[in-house]
Protein backbone atom coordinates (compact mmCIF):
# COMPACT_ATOMS: atom_id res chain seq x y z
CA UNK A 1 0.00 0.00 0.00
CA UNK A 2 2.72 2.43 1.02
CA UNK A 3 4.75 1.42 -2.03
CA UNK A 4 1.83 2.21 -4.34
CA UNK A 5 1.37 5.61 -2.73
CA UNK A 6 5.07 6.34 -3.17
CA UNK A 7 4.90 5.42 -6.88
CA UNK A 8 1.83 7.61 -7.37
CA UNK A 9 3.59 10.53 -5.67
CA UNK A 10 6.67 10.19 -7.86
CA UNK A 11 4.47 9.96 -10.97
CA UNK A 12 2.60 13.14 -10.03
CA UNK A 13 5.88 14.99 -9.36
CA UNK A 14 7.26 13.95 -12.78
CA UNK A 15 4.04 14.97 -14.50
CA UNK A 16 4.17 18.36 -12.79
CA UNK A 17 7.82 18.89 -13.85
CA UNK A 18 7.05 17.91 -17.44
CA UNK A 19 4.12 20.31 -17.56
CA UNK A 20 6.28 23.12 -16.17
CA UNK A 21 9.04 22.44 -18.72
CA UNK A 22 6.53 22.35 -21.56
CA UNK A 23 5.02 25.62 -20.37
CA UNK A 24 8.43 27.31 -20.22
CA UNK A 25 9.31 26.11 -23.73
CA UNK A 26 5.94 27.31 -25.02
CA UNK A 27 6.46 30.73 -23.47
CA UNK A 28 9.95 31.01 -25.00
CA UNK A 29 8.59 30.02 -28.42
CA UNK A 30 5.76 32.54 -28.14
CA UNK A 31 8.29 35.25 -27.27
CA UNK A 32 10.43 34.42 -30.33
CA UNK A 33 7.38 34.45 -32.60
CA UNK A 34 6.26 37.78 -31.17
CA UNK A 35 9.76 39.19 -31.70
CA UNK A 36 9.73 38.11 -35.35
CA UNK A 37 6.27 39.56 -35.88
CA UNK A 38 7.49 42.91 -34.57
CA UNK A 39 10.08 43.17 -37.34
CA UNK A 40 8.30 45.23 -39.95
CA UNK A 41 9.03 45.38 -43.66
CA UNK A 42 11.20 48.46 -43.22
CA UNK A 43 13.46 46.66 -40.75
CA UNK A 44 13.70 43.64 -43.05
CA UNK A 45 14.69 45.95 -45.89
CA UNK A 46 17.42 47.50 -43.75
CA UNK A 47 18.75 44.05 -42.86
CA UNK A 48 18.74 43.13 -46.53
CA UNK A 49 20.62 46.30 -47.48
CA UNK A 50 23.27 45.71 -44.81
CA UNK A 51 23.73 42.16 -46.05
CA UNK A 52 24.15 43.34 -49.64
CA UNK A 53 26.62 46.02 -48.53
CA UNK A 54 28.70 43.43 -46.67
CA UNK A 55 28.74 41.15 -49.71
CA UNK A 56 29.72 44.02 -51.97
CA UNK A 57 32.54 45.03 -49.64
CA UNK A 58 33.83 41.44 -49.50
CA UNK A 59 33.77 41.22 -53.29
CA UNK A 60 35.63 44.51 -53.62
CA UNK A 61 38.26 43.28 -51.14
CA UNK A 62 38.66 40.07 -53.11
CA UNK A 63 39.15 41.98 -56.38
CA UNK A 64 41.70 44.25 -54.71
CA UNK A 65 43.68 41.26 -53.47
CA UNK A 66 43.62 39.62 -56.91
CA UNK A 67 44.80 42.85 -58.54
CA UNK A 68 47.83 42.81 -56.23
CA UNK A 69 48.83 39.26 -57.13
CA UNK A 70 47.06 37.36 -54.38
CA UNK A 71 45.45 34.00 -55.17
CA UNK A 72 48.46 32.54 -56.96
CA UNK A 73 51.91 31.39 -55.96
CA UNK A 74 54.49 33.04 -58.18
CA UNK A 75 58.18 33.81 -58.41
CA UNK A 76 59.48 37.37 -58.36
CA UNK A 77 62.64 38.13 -60.39
CA UNK A 78 64.73 40.13 -57.93
CA UNK A 79 65.11 41.49 -54.43
CA UNK A 80 64.07 44.91 -55.71
CA UNK A 81 60.65 43.46 -56.52
CA UNK A 82 60.41 42.04 -52.99
CA UNK A 83 60.17 45.48 -51.41
CA UNK A 84 57.37 46.53 -53.73
CA UNK A 85 55.45 43.29 -53.15
CA UNK A 86 55.50 43.61 -49.37
CA UNK A 87 54.63 47.29 -49.62
CA UNK A 88 51.50 46.54 -51.65
CA UNK A 89 50.09 43.83 -49.37
CA UNK A 90 49.42 43.62 -45.66
CA UNK A 91 50.37 39.93 -45.33
CA UNK A 92 53.07 38.21 -47.41
CA UNK A 93 54.69 34.78 -47.32
CA UNK A 94 58.00 34.77 -49.21
CA UNK A 95 59.77 31.48 -49.90
CA UNK A 96 63.53 31.97 -50.20
CA UNK A 97 64.55 29.03 -52.37
CA UNK A 98 67.34 27.62 -54.48
CA UNK A 99 66.73 25.65 -57.65
CA UNK A 100 69.05 22.80 -56.66
CA UNK A 101 67.50 22.26 -53.23
CA UNK A 102 65.07 19.34 -53.26
CA UNK A 103 63.04 20.42 -50.25
CA UNK A 104 62.18 23.72 -51.90
CA UNK A 105 60.07 21.71 -54.37
CA UNK A 106 58.11 20.28 -51.45
CA UNK A 107 57.43 23.77 -50.11
CA UNK A 108 56.38 24.89 -53.61
CA UNK A 109 53.71 22.20 -53.76
CA UNK A 110 52.08 23.21 -50.50
CA UNK A 111 52.28 26.97 -51.04
CA UNK A 112 50.60 26.65 -54.45
CA UNK A 113 47.60 25.11 -52.68
CA UNK A 114 47.50 27.62 -49.83
CA UNK A 115 47.78 30.63 -52.15
CA UNK A 116 44.44 29.73 -53.72
CA UNK A 117 42.82 29.07 -50.35
CA UNK A 118 44.02 32.18 -48.50
CA UNK A 119 43.41 35.17 -50.74
CA UNK A 120 44.05 37.49 -47.80
CA UNK A 121 47.76 36.68 -48.02
CA UNK A 122 50.24 37.05 -50.88
CA UNK A 123 52.46 34.01 -51.60
CA UNK A 124 55.70 34.59 -53.52
CA UNK A 125 59.11 32.98 -53.95
CA UNK A 126 62.55 34.45 -54.53
CA UNK A 127 65.75 32.72 -55.59
CA UNK A 128 68.16 33.42 -52.74
CA UNK A 129 71.12 33.50 -55.16
CA UNK A 130 69.52 36.50 -56.89
CA UNK A 131 68.97 38.34 -53.62
CA UNK A 132 72.30 38.51 -51.74
CA UNK A 133 71.58 41.88 -50.09
CA UNK A 134 68.12 40.85 -48.90
CA UNK A 135 69.33 37.45 -47.71
CA UNK A 136 72.03 39.14 -45.67
CA UNK A 137 69.60 41.70 -44.27
CA UNK A 138 67.08 39.03 -43.24
CA UNK A 139 69.84 36.61 -42.19
CA UNK A 140 68.61 33.85 -44.49
CA UNK A 141 71.14 31.05 -43.98
CA UNK A 142 69.08 27.87 -44.28
CA UNK A 143 67.25 26.89 -47.46
CA UNK A 144 64.28 26.66 -47.67
CA UNK A 145 63.21 29.53 -45.44
CA UNK A 146 59.83 31.22 -45.39
CA UNK A 147 59.81 34.88 -44.36
CA UNK A 148 56.43 35.93 -42.98
CA UNK A 149 55.94 39.66 -43.54
CA UNK A 150 53.18 41.66 -41.86
CA UNK A 151 52.66 45.37 -42.58
CA UNK A 152 56.04 45.57 -44.30
CA UNK A 153 57.97 44.01 -41.40
CA UNK A 154 59.28 40.46 -41.13
CA UNK A 155 57.30 38.99 -38.24
CA UNK A 156 58.46 35.37 -38.23
CA UNK A 157 60.43 32.72 -40.12
CA UNK A 158 59.82 29.07 -40.93
CA UNK A 159 63.32 27.64 -41.30
CA UNK A 160 63.65 24.29 -43.05
CA UNK A 161 61.17 21.68 -41.82
CA UNK A 162 61.95 22.01 -38.10
CA UNK A 163 58.58 23.60 -37.34
CA UNK A 164 56.75 21.16 -39.60
CA UNK A 165 57.49 17.90 -37.83
CA UNK A 166 61.04 17.36 -39.14
CA UNK A 167 59.76 15.28 -42.04
CA UNK A 168 59.55 15.67 -45.81
CA UNK A 169 56.06 14.19 -45.63
CA UNK A 170 54.35 16.96 -43.67
CA UNK A 171 50.87 17.84 -44.94
CA UNK A 172 49.55 21.09 -46.34
CA UNK A 173 47.37 21.29 -43.22
CA UNK A 174 50.46 21.32 -41.00
CA UNK A 175 52.05 24.17 -42.93
CA UNK A 176 48.74 26.02 -42.89
CA UNK A 177 48.58 25.58 -39.10
CA UNK A 178 52.15 26.89 -38.69
CA UNK A 179 51.34 29.95 -40.80
CA UNK A 180 48.20 30.44 -38.72
CA UNK A 181 50.29 30.43 -35.54
CA UNK A 182 52.08 33.51 -36.86
CA UNK A 183 48.85 35.25 -37.79
CA UNK A 184 49.96 35.65 -41.39
CA UNK A 185 46.79 33.90 -42.63
CA UNK A 186 43.23 33.70 -41.32
CA UNK A 187 43.31 30.26 -39.71
CA UNK A 188 40.05 28.75 -38.45
CA UNK A 189 41.45 25.64 -36.80
CA UNK A 190 42.93 24.95 -33.35
CA UNK A 191 46.17 26.88 -32.92
CA UNK A 192 47.07 25.06 -29.70
CA UNK A 193 48.28 21.94 -31.49
CA UNK A 194 49.10 20.88 -35.07
CA UNK A 195 46.53 18.91 -37.07
CA UNK A 196 46.97 15.17 -36.50
CA UNK A 197 45.42 13.90 -39.72
CA UNK A 198 48.09 12.37 -41.92
CA UNK A 199 50.82 12.95 -39.32
CA UNK A 200 53.00 9.98 -38.47
CA UNK A 201 52.87 8.77 -34.84
CA UNK A 202 55.75 10.14 -32.82
CA UNK A 203 56.28 13.17 -35.06
CA UNK A 204 57.67 16.04 -33.01
CA UNK A 205 57.16 19.73 -33.65
CA UNK A 206 59.97 21.94 -32.41
CA UNK A 207 59.96 25.67 -32.97
CA UNK A 208 63.34 27.03 -34.07
CA UNK A 209 64.32 30.39 -32.64
CA UNK A 210 65.01 32.71 -35.56
CA UNK A 211 67.99 34.11 -33.66
CA UNK A 212 69.87 30.93 -34.54
CA UNK A 213 69.79 31.74 -38.27
CA UNK A 214 73.39 32.82 -38.59
CA UNK A 215 76.62 31.90 -40.28
CA UNK A 216 78.24 32.37 -43.68
CA UNK A 217 76.95 30.93 -46.92
CA UNK A 218 73.68 29.05 -47.37
CA UNK A 219 73.03 25.79 -45.55
CA UNK A 220 70.61 23.44 -47.26
CA UNK A 221 67.96 21.69 -45.24
CA UNK A 222 67.72 19.14 -48.06
CA UNK A 223 69.59 15.86 -48.36
CA UNK A 224 69.70 16.35 -52.11
CA UNK A 225 71.32 19.32 -53.85
Name the features.
about 15% strand; Glutaredoxin; about 220 residues; two-stranded parallel ribbon; alpha/beta
Report on the architecture of this protein.
With 225 residues, the protein is α/β, with parallel strands linked by helices. The chain has 2 domains: 2-64; 71-220, Glutaredoxin (3-Layer(aba) Sandwich). The protein is 48% helix and 15% strand. It has 6 helices and 7 strands, in the order ααβαβαβαβββαβ. Strands 1-3-2-5-6 form a 5-stranded mixed β-sheet. Strands 4-7 form a two-stranded parallel sheet. 25% of the residues are buried. Mean pLDDT is 83; it is low at 207-218.
Query: Helical content, roughly?
Result: 40-55%
Q: For the residues shown, what is the average pLDDT?
A: 83
Shape: elongated
Identify the strand order in the major beta sheet. 1-3-2-5-6
CATH class of the largest domain: Alpha Beta
Proportion in β-strands: 5-15%
CATH topology of the largest domain: Glutaredoxin
Secondary structure tally: strands: 7
Structural class category:
alpha/beta
Number of helices: 6
- Spatial separation of the terminal alpha carbons: 91 Å
Number of domains: 2
Helix and strand element order: HHEHEHEHEEEHE
User: Mind summarizing the main beta sheet?
Assistant: 5 strands, mixed
The CATH architecture category of the largest domain equals: 3-Layer(aba) Sandwich
Coiled coil: 19-64
Subunit structure: Forms ternary complexes with the chaperonin TCP1 complex, spanning the cylindrical chaperonin cavity and contacting at least 2 subunits.
Keywords: Coiled coil, Cytoplasm, Cytoskeleton, Nucleus, Phosphoprotein
Function: Significantly diminishes the chaperonin TCP1 complex ATPase activity, thus negatively impacts protein folding, including that of actin or tubulin.
